[in-house]
Amino acid sequence: MAIIFAILIFSLLIFVHELGHFLAAKASGVRVNEFSMFMGPTIFKKQVGETLYSIRCIPIGGFCAMEGEDGGSDDPKSFHKAAWWKRLIILVAGAAMNFIIGFLLFVIVFMPSEQIAVPVIDSFESFSTLDGENGLQVGDEFLEIDGEKIYVQSDFSLILSLNEGDIHDVVVLRDGKKVHLDDLKMELHTVKDEQGNDVQRYGFSFSVIEPTFMEKVGYAWGNTIDSVRNIRLSLQMLLTGKAGLGDMTGVVGVVDLMSDVADQSQSAWLAVLNMLWFGGFLAVNLAVMNLLPLPALDDGRVAGLLLTTLVEKITRKKIDPKYEGYIHGVGMILLFALMAVIMFKDIIFIFKG
Q1: What CATH code is assigned to 116-209?
Q2: From the candidates 18, 67, 69, 324, which is the catalytic residue?
Q3: Global pTM?
Q4: Do 251 and 342 meet the contact criterion of CB atoms below 8 Å apart?
């Protein structure tokens, strides 16, 4: 059931993405030839005006087929006949819808929460070396560590783990004012936990609040923005060589991970919330990844749109959209090849596990 639920979440996110393109195209006066829920052979279809609405048999995603999307149409309502700013709105609408649904899923996940940990210091342990006149104090709210913003409490350990050593630049909110603690030594201490195991701790605890409705919404927004930042950090690690192909996970790997998390949840309700959290994270991922300036992705088309619009303004000559279509076609082939490699790696990893 967890695997089926995960697949349905993926399908929902892709469908919502295409729905964004569809709504923007309709609002911009661009002809949509077909709008389909799911993929594969058609099991239901109905023509309404100029658009064929269909439901297909493979419950994955969907598509929005616009007239002249890849050029080659003289229809005045084709995609490439629309004003450049309308085409821009249509292209980014899919990612915008994914971002919105990601935020809403986070809201659903955190709305039942009775307590939430916040990045505010509640108390210090006796062994801590971080408190004092020139250090941290009770009530300090972490705003930044090493130039990275702290959106939610879990960011504290994440950001510290990105930088080697124990010297960090910290910004806190203290009595309504920003306090900069440069070159603060964040010293870990080895102590015994409640089970008698050796653990490393900084020697302070975070505050836990009983959130109001708006605080829950704010917490969901913090997780949404935090997801965007995590994607950026992951891309930085890929570009700098700190992560490689083996660290990348595709649809198969994510579904397997979601299934494991659901199976390990203490109740069916927690399993559903954990799956929805993954759905929110994936929605934000899809939004950000589709805005990367790569051929075949939405922002690759945005980049091509802006470039061709600029060239046409300068040269006053219309560029045949088929050439842009060729570039995106090659990009799509390369993208599918990368996805296939990652999927093959995920399958091998699952069977080895």
Answers
A1: 2.30.42.10
A2: 18
A3: 0.83
A4: no
